[in-house]
Amino acid sequence: MKDSFTQSMDWLHTWGGLLFGWLLFVIFFSGTLTVFDKEITYWMQPELHHLPAAALNVDAVTRQLSTLGGNSDHWWIELPTNRLPVTKIFWKRQDQFEERLIEPLSGKPVAVRDTHGGEFFYRFHYQLHLDRVGVWVVGASALVMLVALVTGLVIHRRIFKDFFTFRPRSSPHRAWLDVHNLTGVLVLPFHFMITFTGLVIFGQIYIPAGVDLLYGGDEEQVVADMEQRIERSPQHNRAPLVSLETLERRAREHWDGGTTEWIEVHNPGDRHALVEITRRTDDRLALVSDRVTFDGATGETLQVWKATQPAFLTYSVVIGLHYIWFDKITIRWLYFLMGLAASVMIATGLVLWTVKRRARHFDAATTVWYRLVERLNIAIVAGLPIATAAFFWSNRLLPTDLAGRALWEMRMFFLTWGFCVLHAFLRREWSAAWKEQLYGGGALFACLPLLNMATTQSHMLITIPNEMWRLAGIDLTSLATGLLLGWGGRHVGRIGTASQPASEPVLETQQV
């Protein structure tokens, strides 16, 4: 325990932020990209770019599903949106799922390159591609983030003064601290909101006592009770399916202008077929999907379900704030910028830890620890953007017919990141390692629009004049990211030059 409460909070903020800071940077960086996950997926499938936006021809898609997914237990049709103007169909046969992308108007399948697209960053954000273990790791990191935010408020006595303070020409320590404070204070409510709501989403996993006590640990039954779904077993007597187009139109009459997101058919072609039409959630804050259920053989309305339970609605609003499925592009950009600010806050906190201690002299064991922190900072803060750029580059350069192509894109991401880790630890001069990785990431991002121009017909010279902003936005953001990383490399180089004489004899004499 330290001498005072403030010192204890300072210690907690410093060491909690350091030990979980690398994970938090990965989580917030990937979460920031996830804000535009569907736009990233769309950009990474240029075969879709020529498709015009069109309303769904439900009957045509149903015929296609009957052909591809005949004798299936379950059908899903995901309707096109202005974010992804293509229809997805899924079917399940004997516990095996298959899916296709379909032209909304003609119902014909569309051949696209295999890629995880924005889904890669989405899963990386909440589970680090480690399934259940990753969810627990992310949850522990989020809890530490909340502690760091609270302790940060306690130790920053001049929080409002810091809000207006930025001294880039001051000492490296002061400049990094100002950036850390500025990005922390500027969007402080967002930091609290996004961290808390992230914990709430997986509350049943982190605190399973209620589910264990009332449902014996059956999480699916909890959802079934909340959503009050009708279930039917197949009768195994054939019966024609009522027109899904008619049912979809009838469902919309219950939604006061709302639109359809999903059409789901249980037991298609059976006398006990069920059709569920689910409302899109892009016009409301709560992440709750109203639903109308029909008898698939007779067209009778069996259930009009709307969430009215106060507890469930409260929960839906809380998680809706995190998922941001309400499709307002201005809010989406605001989330992106605030996520970027959170990533910068975490990154500057990590860098500040080493900048503050670089000029001190320590024994050999302590120096090894500080060198480890410095190199991990480089590998994570500068290496992750390089790996992200490599992910996008591999999407354009890998052969479109390569077997396991989506997996190879992921491999390129992690192989590039691994190379960055090796470079950070093997490069003798820490400032040179920072500079080279930031310049490298900047070059990859800045040249990505040129690569897109060389490999597709949907580059900025076409997308900007035709106001295809969801595609142009990826290229423009990539260009801006490249310039920002290049600026960072130049800035870090200057800091390195300024502080090197005092620090290098201590930190670098231990290097091989």
Structure in words:
With 512 residues, this protein is of the alpha+beta class. It is built from 19 helices and seven strands. It has helices spanning 5-34, 37-43, 58-68, 118-127, 131-155, 159-163, 172-186, 188-201, 203-206, 209-215, 219-227, 244-252, 310-323, 329-358, 364-397, 405-426, 430-455, 460-463, 469-507, and strands at residues 74-78, 87-93, 96-102, 260-266, 274-279, 291-295, 301-305. It has a seven-stranded antiparallel β-sheet with strand order 3-2-1-4-5-6-7, with helices on one face.
TL;DR of this structure?
The protein has helices spanning 5-34, 37-43, 58-68, 118-127, 131-155, 159-163, 172-186, 188-201, 203-206, 209-215, 219-227, 244-252, 310-323, 329-358, 364-397, 405-426, 430-455, 460-463, 469-507; strands spanning 74-78, 87-93, 96-102, 260-266, 274-279, 291-295, 301-305. The protein has 512 residues and is α+β, with helices and mostly antiparallel strands. Strands 3-2-1-4-5-6-7 form a 7-stranded antiparallel beta sheet, covered by helices on one side.
Secondary structure class reads alpha+beta
Cα end-to-end separation: 37 Å
Main sheet summary? 7 strands, antiparallel
> Number of helical segments?
19
List the helices and strands and how they pair.
Elements: H1 5-34, H2 37-43, H3 58-68, E1 74-78, E2 87-93, E3 96-102, H4 118-127, H5 131-155, H6 159-163, H7 172-186, H8 188-201, H9 203-206, H10 209-215, H11 219-227, H12 244-252, E4 260-266, E5 274-279, E6 291-295, E7 301-305, H13 310-323, H14 329-358, H15 364-397, H16 405-426, H17 430-455, H18 460-463, H19 469-507
Helix pairs in contact: 1-4, 1-5, 1-14, 2-4, 5-8, 7-14, 8-13, 14-15, 15-16, 15-17, 17-19
